[in-house]
Design a protein that fits this description.
25% helix, 6-stranded mixed beta sheet, OB fold (Dihydrolipoamide Acetyltransferase, E2P)
Length: 358
């Protein structure tokens, strides 16, 4: 296991980048704790795989350093970094059996055959392939091959880090849940440093101790699922985490009040001198449809998703989402919305402003 340090790290695929916009990965300075499980979460093209490939040694950064436990490995080849990486699409040896595919990383390091057999059997149990150990990989389905790739990544106990690049893309939904559970158990049992790249918030939030949210080549927030939900540090985090995501509404903020088209929204903190683009963010869970109190809205439609209702409403020309309980009635006379002041975040140029105690 290793503590991973990103020191002034950045990368451009251009030979002579002229501005920050030319960088696929903008400057990063972060320490990732030894033995923690992280998920790298963001939309396609945000820099997740670029960062993972730099950590693994498949890509050398344009600037900065990467350190494992304080040792500079920026120029070290992948083989010397003692990591295991599982890619989005299966990488297996078709002419080998499932057993030999799983055993390969251990045999390559000269491990005793009795240990190899024991460990292969253990991993095969985890990935549900005990009955297929003596079958050749050629001819197996894509999801079966990906399970072999996952197993081969997990078979060694002595790695500095386990890196997963969207490894469950080709796995069927039920097996995804099973394998995520097994990955969490593996982390609990052996304490590997794990980094899991995904664009799926459910995968990220159920797998990781901490989620690293990336947007436009930057890390915009590292936090627990609760922190990302309660206090999104960037409007993208609020939008990307949650289903549906946070309502982001242009506003004017003065003191402990936000003003939308002149209508007041109370806040629990005070703000001064906010410039640039100012917005408030409130999650649908903290918005309530009402008959008499609150601000005017026009209900556009109601979607019953079983556990609750999602109300799509027009709020001063902008569409917002409001949650209601499964058994809550939504009447024609319910044309007001109330935001919980304790859960209204304030943003200036997309970044959360803490404010002062009001």
């Amino acid at each position: 296991m290793a503590k991973i340090t990103l020191d002034n790290l950045a990368h451009s695929y251009l030979a002579n980048p002229a501005s920050e916009d030319d960088f696929a990965l903008k400057e990063l300075n972060h320490d990732w704790d030894d033995g923690a499980a992280y998920a790298l979460l963001g939309a396609s093209g945000c820099g997740k795989s670029t960062l993972l490939n730099i950590i693994s040694g498949l890509l050398r950064p344009s600037q900065g350093r990467i350190l494992f436990d304080g040792q500079d490995v920026t120029d070290a080849p992948t083989a010397e970094r003692n990591i295991a990486q599982v890619f989005q699409f299966p990488v297996v040896y078709d002419t080998m059996t499932v057993h030999d595919n799983l055993a390969f990383p251990l045999r390559n390091r000269g491990r005793d055959e009795s240990y190899v057999a024991e460990r292969v059997q253990e991993i095969a149990r985890m990935i549900g392939m005990e009955e297929m150990l003596h079958k050749k990989a050629r001819g197996l389905t894509a999801d079966a091959k990906q399970k072999i790739s996952l197993g081969r990544g997990m078979v060694r106990k002595d790695v500095n880090a386990l890196l997963f690049d969207e490894p469950l893309t080709v796995i069927d939904p039920h097996m995804k849940w099973e394998l995520r559970t097994q990955l969490k158990k593996l982390h609990h049992d052996f304490g590997h440093t794990m980094i899991y790249v995904t664009h799926d918030q459910t995968e990220a939030l159920t797998f990781a101790d901490k989620v690293v949210v990336m947007y436009d080549g930057r890390v915009v927030q590292i936090g627990t699922p609760e922190e990302l939900f309660e206090r999104p540090e960037h409007t993208f985090v609020g939008y990307f985490i949650g289903s549906p995501g946070m309502n982001v509404i242009p506003a004017r903020v003065e003191g402990d009040r936000a003003y939308v088209n002149g209508a007041q929204i109370p806040l629990t903190r005070g703000y001064r001198g906010l410039g640039g683009k100012v917005e408030i963010g409130v999650r649908p869970e903290f918005a309530r449809l009402s008959k008499g109190e609150g601000l005017p809205v026009k209900v556009l439609r109601v979607e019953d998703v079983g556990r609750h209702k999602i109300i799509r409403a027009e709020f001063f020309g902008k569409t917002i989402n409001i949650f209601a309980g499964e058994d809550d009635a939504v009447g024609a006379d319910m044309n007001r919305v109330v935001f919980d002041p304790a859960h209204v975040n304030v943003y200036a140029d997309d970044w959360r402003v803490e404010g002062e105690v009001a």
